[in-house]
Structure formats: structure tokens, C-alpha cells
Amino acid sequence: MTSKPSSLDLDDAWAHVDVAGTRMVDVHMRTLFAEDPGRAQRFSMDAGPLFADFSKHRVDDAAFSTLMALVAAAGLEEYRAAMFRGEHINSTEGRAVGHVALRAGADATFVVDGVNVMPEVTDVLARMRTFTDAVRTGAWQGHTGETITDVVNIGIGGSDLGPLMVCEALAHFGREGLRAHFVSNVDGTHIAKTLTGLNPARTLFIIASKTFTTQETLTNAHSARRWLVEALGDEDSVARHFVAVSTNEAGVRDFGIDPRNMFGFWDWVGGRYSLWSAIGLPIACHIGMDHFESLLRGAREMDQHFASEPLEQNLPVILGALGVWYGRCHDARSHAVLPYDQYLHRLPAFLQQLDMESNGKRVTATGEPASATGPIVWGEPGTNGQHAFYQLLHQGTHLVPVDFIVPARSLNPVGEHHSILLANCIAQSEALMRGKTMGEVLDELRALGLSEADAAALAPHKVFEGNRPSTTLVVECLDPHALGALIALYEHKVFVQGVLFGINSFDQWGVELGKQLAKVIERELDGETNPQAHDASTNALVARLKRQVASTARVDSGT
Ligand code: F6P
To answer: Ligand 1, closest atom to CA 357?
Structure first.
């Protein structure tokens, strides 16, 4: 693994950032705009199909330069090159990080452990095309000879959120008469509600699990198989109604899926970075392989931008550095993603896994306590959020940097809807930046005829301090190409922040403890007594739920 430049360089770079942060604390963006007519143009750029305006941030040229110097001192260019060279930058799992290979195109070379993986990547894409074409044209038939009308993806985390988010985002490009469904939660309600109304003879299940050991996915997959076999009355029906996406061929075979119906991927693809692999099979079924390849092309364009543009013109670098700036110098703890596009309603949930599973770490890559790591990511589409939590964004005591994402053109033009949507999006970024001063509020209240005393009493509640940062990302319209670039932008932003935090963004040990303890508690709920001692709270919860389950069972059986 490439080593970082000396820690002295990095310490100096942080010190410069801190000085700039202190200097900028009381500088209002209104002043920055007033004093610098070229600001909006200088702090904005095109990157592939995306336009980004990052001028509404609390940085001037000097502060921006300290951030770029920090990125350089942290060794971003070396780490980035190491990723693109297929080195084992996921140090705690001893793996390469190769999602960029999945969209690099057939002519590219990407070497992992001495082997060019591109022929395998291309081969899987070709198999995905053959399979999804067959499903979409009706050439693939179910056990009873009927065509497929419903594809149900069973997976969780990265084997669910990416494909689900993209299928929702690109629903406009979906094929009529072929519906995509997603089951992830082990709560039986999820699969029960999804299967209600589906015709088993026309339903195809994709069991998506990198490891093929994930409890939720296997539990749901077994329930789906029971539902199918009971309905069709034949174990052999599984062959025409179940396919798998996994790195674990033995696990797939043990489950009873023919490995010929398995689409492989590789341990160098992280779950939350896997929608570009065969994990994207439900996407390709839904929108077709041509559109799926446009998605890959959009991501590839962003990869090329990230790999080759100088730091100060490199969008993932800029957005990553700005995010770290607010955590370090302005005590920001969260980051809101606010798409002004209903199709992107699951983007915040997808980005929560991407960012928080990657950068929610307690130690650096070398095992030292990390001083800061990634933000809490959250969000909802606008304009809905405006009528819910924007109050806090505008007047709360937390500073929350915001990303607005908006398409210039609607895929569903209805009357004046889209211009209202656009106006709201732009107005929110303006309001967050400008705010409204006490003087402005008092003038407004006087003009409404309030007495001086009443105006003075009400005014503090109506003041907006402003100076709240946002980035606005604009696409021409939300098509597969633009979406691919947008997702890749966030992937690389997370990479940049991981480098600045000095952490390994590609493991996820933090999810393990809960899984281990759940296994023990499951045995206790099933009747085993105390295989492991717990604290009093946990013991009491187990005992209470056991009692409640038992009494519900008695009521159900009438005893
Ligand atoms: O528990 C977390 C996690 O390992 C994620 O990182 C992953 O995306 C998800 O579970 C699903 O894992 P798998 O694809 O192996 O079922």
C-alpha cells in the first residue's frame, strides 16, 4: 500500500485549515458574494453530466487553498492511484477495492493480484444481457410455461439499497408489465406484503447476497421458496424461478439454486459499492441492459474525472474536503441530502449506507483512535422536507451542510409543477445562505403596521442568521447516464473523506457485534436458558418478550 507523506506535512496542513476555519467563523457568505462578483462562477463547475454550484459555502479562495493543500498532504493522489491500480487498500480485510473496474469498459485493464479482471467483468455483463433480454422478451418462462411479470430481489444492505434506489430513480425507463419488488427486512411483514397478489407462476426471485450467509436474506429466500413450491406443487419449479447473485458458489448450490443460474462477482467489490456488478441484475431486468450500460458509462465518466482532474477542479475532492471542513471547523455533525426529484426518494437511504458504513469508524487505518470520522447522513425529497424539518435547517442551533439535487427538465411535465419545484429548490439555497437580518425583519413588521413594542417582541423569532452552506447539483434530466455519474460522485467523495480521516473506508466490522448477540438471544427466545449472561435490562427484555410470545401463542391456540 502506498504510504502517506510525512505526518509533519499533514499536521501543518491541518493547522493551516484550522487557522482558516477560525478566520472564517464570523465571515458571512453575504459579504463573500458582495465583495466578489466572480464567486458564483469560480466556485462552480461541470463534471460529466453534472453541474455543481459550491459557491454557497463558507470558504474564500485562501480557505479553499488550505483545503486543497490538506487533500494533497493526506496523500489523496497516492491512495486514489492505489485504488485504480487494484492494490489491497482495504487493509483490514486484505482486499482490493475494485468497483471502478465494474464500469471501466471492455477495453480497460484492471489488475487484482496480478490478474486482469476485465474479461471476467465483461463476461458477467454479457450473461446479464442474455438473461435479462430473455426475461424481458418472454423467452425465459416459468415452470408452467408462463412469462415473468414480477421480479423480486431478496437481499439486504448493499444487496438491496443500491438496486432498489436505482430502480426507483429510473422507473421512467422501466418496462411496462415487468414489475420490480424488493424484500430485505427479516420482519415477515415485508415478504408477506410483497408476495400478496403475486402470481407464483409468473414470479422470478433474485437472491442477492455477496456472502450468501446473511441471516435475513436466507430466511426470506427460504420463505419465498416455500411459497413457490407450495403453489406450484413441484420442487423442480425452483430452477425456473430462482437465480442467485453471489461470490459464494457453494452456498448458492446448498440452497438449491443451480450454479448455471448464478451470476458471480468478487470479494474486491464491497457490498455498498456493488450495484454496478451482477447485484444490478434487478436494475437490468427493470430498465434493460442498454440503459444499465448507460448507468455504467455515467459512472465511468465520473471515475475519469476523479482520476485525472487536478485537485482544485476535481468535484469529489472539493465536496469531500468541504464536508470535512464543516466537521472540523464548524462543529457540523450531520449532512442532509435533499433531492428535488421524487424519483430520488431512496437516495438518502442509499447514501446512509454508502457513507456511514464506510466512514463511521473509531480508529484510523493503523488502529489509532480517529479524531473525527464521517457525518450522519439523512434527507428526504424536497419540497416535502420543507414542510417538515427545514425549520431546523434554517433556525436550529445545529449547522447542517446541505446537498440540493435537481433536474432542469422533468420526465413528467405536468402544468406548472416543475417550475414551482425548481423555484423552491433555488429559493431554499438562497434562504439558507442569505438569511434575514433583524433590521430586515423589523422593517417588514413595521410595514405590516405592528407597534414598535410588538415588532421588537416578535422580531427575534423571525430572524434567520443565514450563512448556512449548501451545494446545488443540477442534471439536465434524471436519466441512467446522469444517475451513474451522481452515484459515482458520492462514492468518490466518501473515498476522499476516508483519506482525510485516515481511516479504512472499506470494512464494516461495526455491524458484527449485534449479529453475534442476536444469534444467542434467538436461542434464548426459542427456549434455551441463558447460553450467555446478559445485563439486567437485556435479561428483562428477553424474559418479557418470551412471556408475551407465549401468551399470544396460548390465545391463538385457544388454550
Ligand atoms: O451487515 C452489513 C453487510 O455486511 C453489508 O455490508 C452488506 O451490504 C450487507 O450486510 C449484505 O451482505 P450480503 O450481500 O453478504 O448478504
So the answer is: 6
